[in-house]
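Key result, reporting period 2: structure in, sequence out.
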């Protein structure tokens, strides 16, 4: 037997250690579609209960939009369940070409290439474009999928302090001997909800002859005046060389991602990006749904405007109640708790009050930075937010954290 008793014992001990440290991640089972209110089975085997969902990436409420579902059903009827192939063999339909063209127009770029997910896009883009003659300079808080993608690339790696533009400039000067320099950042940082300083980054990229890469997964569809992303918000559309983003958040919530940007860079990904070359094509049902999403958000900003209002109101509610809230301008509103067990305990108590949130802790965030990350949706009504803040205040009082800052919370619960 290859899997020995010693190996089994080792992994059991590792898992128990994770559990004892309060870091064990538990799954909840949804018995409904994704929406502002969902039916959740937790713990496993319990009767499902209806709760307000404050932890999904369903920013525009498109995951259960009837028009999107109808479009997806039509895509299933006319183009089938799947392509059973990769893109360059026999896995590209007219729908894929249409979606790439629509994304290119929406993002304001030169060309777009679909991937099975944004994780796959990030896994393939750096290796396809850079070599050991080049350097990647990344914000220290970029998404884990970017970190993994960078590891697959032979280019040199360096980082700059989070959103520290002076430090970024120092790094660009330090690496002037490299053939190509690529600045790498998230558009919206998924754990903190803050936005990259793309206006300054674009200026630095042009000054130092560097490429600018942005993963805009948590922005595409709602950040910016017409929801095109952080590059629209920062006024630098057309100045970002590479954008990766997802169809799995605001743009429908299913799966699929893309690389979008300079024509030549996208073409290189089409030729060399391994996740594109060796993964099945995005399913037609998803492509058809995403096409309808782009039509809907292109016809009106009503949903992004409602999301912006919900985010502003919710952030104020939490702050006024005395919670330690990370500042930001996105639909991601983190409630800082610093202690992993406290984050899990509060999330469990909030579930009992009818509010579905998740505690985030190491290794998803740094040690001592545990939190409950709340996320708003255009599907939320004001009544949802009012019910949620009542529950948060009740649970916050139980743990005596209202009006307390980082030092006081850590003193009471540890980091």
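The corresponding designed sequence is given below.
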């Amino acid at each position: 037997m290859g899997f020995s008793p010693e190996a089994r014992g080792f992994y059991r001990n590792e898992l128990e250690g994770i559990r004892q440290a309060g870091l064990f991640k538990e799954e909840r089972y949804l018995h409904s579609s994704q929406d502002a209110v969902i039916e959740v089975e937790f713990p496993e085997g319990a009767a499902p209960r209806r709760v307000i969902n404050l932890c999904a990436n369903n920013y525009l409420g498109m995951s259960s939009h009837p028009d999107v579902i109808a479009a997806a059903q039509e895509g299933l009827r006319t183009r089938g369940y799947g392509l059973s192939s990769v893109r360059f063999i026999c896995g590209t339909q007219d729908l894929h070409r249409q979606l790439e063209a629509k994304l290119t127009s929406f993002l304001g770029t030169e060309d777009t290439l679909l991937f099975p997910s944004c994780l796959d896009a990030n896994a393939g883009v750096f290796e396809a474009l850079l070599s050991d003659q080049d350097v990647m300079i990344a914000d220290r808080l970029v998404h884990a999928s970017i970190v993994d993608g960078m590891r697959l690339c032979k280019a040199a790696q360096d980082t700059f302090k989070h959103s520290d533009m002076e430090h970024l400039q120092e790094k660009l000067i330090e690496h002037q001997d490299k053939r190509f320099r690529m600045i790498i950042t998230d558009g919206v940082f998924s754990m903190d909800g803050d936005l990259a300083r793309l206006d300054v980054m674009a200026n630095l990229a042009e000054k130092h002859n560097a490429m600018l890469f942005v993963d805009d997964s948590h922005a595409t569809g709602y950040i910016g005046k017409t929801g095109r992303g952080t590059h629209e918000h920062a006024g630098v559309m057309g100045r970002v060389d590479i954008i990766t983003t997802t169809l799995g958040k605001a743009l429908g919530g299913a799966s699929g991602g893309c690389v979008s940007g300079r024509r030549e860079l996208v073409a290189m990904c089409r030729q060399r990006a391994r996740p594109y070359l060796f993964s099945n094509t995005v399913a037609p049902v998803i492509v058809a749904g995403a096409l309808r999403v782009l039509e809907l958000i292109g016809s009106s900003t009503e949903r992004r405007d409602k999301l912006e209002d919900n985010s502003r109101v919710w952030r104020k509610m939490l702050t006024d109640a005395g919670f330690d809230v990370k500042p930001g301008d996105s639909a991601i509103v983190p409630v800082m708790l610093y202690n992993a067990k406290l984050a899990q305990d509060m999330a469990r108590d909030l579930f009992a009050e009818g509010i579905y949130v998740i505690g985030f802790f190491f290794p998803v965030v740094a040690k001592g930075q545990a939190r409950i990350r709340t996320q708003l949706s255009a599907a939320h009504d004001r009544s949802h937010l009012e019910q949620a803040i009542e529950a948060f205040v009740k649970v916050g009082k139980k743990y005596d954290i209202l009006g307390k800052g980082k030092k006081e919370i850590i003193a009471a619960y540890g980091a």
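The chain has 16 helices and 14 strands. The radius of gyration is 22 Å. This case is discussed further under Risks and Mitigation.
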